Amino acid sequence: MKAPALLRxxxxxxxxxxxxxxxxPVQKRIQRNPEIYARLSETDKLxxxxxxxxxxxxxxxVFLSWGRPDQVASGSQRGAQTERWTYLGAQxxxxxxxxxxxxxxxxxxxxxxxYGGMWDPFWGGYGSxxxxxxYKAASVSFRGGRVTExxxxxx
Length: 155
Known about the structure:
This protein is of the alpha+beta class. It is built from five helices and six strands, in the order H-H-H-H-H-E-E-E-E-E-E. It has one domain. About 10% of the residues are buried.
């Protein structure tokens, strides 16, 4: 009788670990910061769970909803403290290349020149390369610690 109960407990624990690993980034932030989440209003809790914002939200609620910003800028507007959080994305840019050229490589004196050096002509061929270019994906403005505006999407 003990073996099936132990097996059931082990399976439940394994399932719990798997589901925890599959949690969304928002759910992970909520789990790691339960005290912040508990202080939110019911409306803000629902918005945070959906990854959404509203004007008047606190910085903490924005953090739970969208995560840590990539850039923070501080300032002042009409005597009130302002802050802008910027979130960056990365756009893949695909390029086609024709690898042609000549080069030196190998062993020997210094940088491949001299004794033991190896002439290495490399006539490549057609290939492609991916480069990721950062862009401003979202921004949130705060005045007095509360959201005054937010934009999501390439800017």
